[in-house]
Write a structure and sequence with these properties.
By secondary structure, this protein is mainly β. It is about 10% helix and about 55% strand. The protein has one helix and eleven strands; from the N terminus they run αβββββββββββ. Strands 1, 2, 3, 4, 5, 6, 7, 8, 9, 10 and 11 form an eleven-stranded antiparallel β-sheet that branches.
């Protein structure tokens, strides 16, 4: 669940900001973990008799990497859930140390889709790109790079938005592509 945060510093900052906000508003946040779900309950105070104000539920599932999970849905306090889909992609790190060649592979989790509460869908596609380990120069010919990694930059985003159009005097459900 917290794997999207880049390091402990980011998590510490996020929790500090949450704590400071709660201290200012007098509200209390309680987390509970059950299986692949994290439930976040927000109360009007820290008392045992506090009133529940709202609940968020974050659902995760396992990835093919042992011990790693991915966020698959978020249920906000009201309305429809938000759904997330991913592609697991193998990536390669190649480098030479002296006369020895070292290859290492690892998996990346790429966000491929979000279904929003409005039922709009954002779709994402990625490309594979060979990148130098020793230079950020984009003019380097990829075929001449000896020490490299395979990068997967975002190449397209497409939004499919349910809407209604007036056609021949009738409102018709359509999907706008943006």
């Amino acid at each position: 669940f917290w794997s999207h945060l880049h390091c402990n510093r980011d998590l510490d900052l996020a929790l500090t900001n949450l704590h400071n906000h709660m201290a200012l508003t007098g509200r209390s946040v309680r987390f509970s973990y059950l299986g692949g779900s994290v439930t976040v309950n927000v109360y009007d105070s820290d008392s045992d008799l506090a009133t529940l104000l709202f609940t968020w539920v974050y659902n995760t599932t396992e990835t093919s990497v042992s011990g790693k999970r991915k966020l698959i849905s978020v249920q906000p306090p009201t309305g429809n859930a938000i759904y997330y889909s991913y592609e697991e992609r193998q990536s390669l790190l190649h480098y030479e140390i002296g006369n020895e060649i070292a290859d290492s592979s690892f998996k990346k989790l790429l966000l491929t889709g979000i279904t929003h509460p409005t039922q709009a869908i954002s779709s994402y596609t990625y490309t594979n790109r060979k990148r130098s380990l020793v230079s950020d120069d984009p003019t380097i010919n990829p075929s001449t790079i000896e020490d490299y990694y395979m990068d997967t930059p975002l190449s397209t985003r497409q939004d499919s938005v349910p809407t209604r159009e007036l056609q021949s005097g009738y409102l018709v459900n359509v999907t706008a592509i943006e």
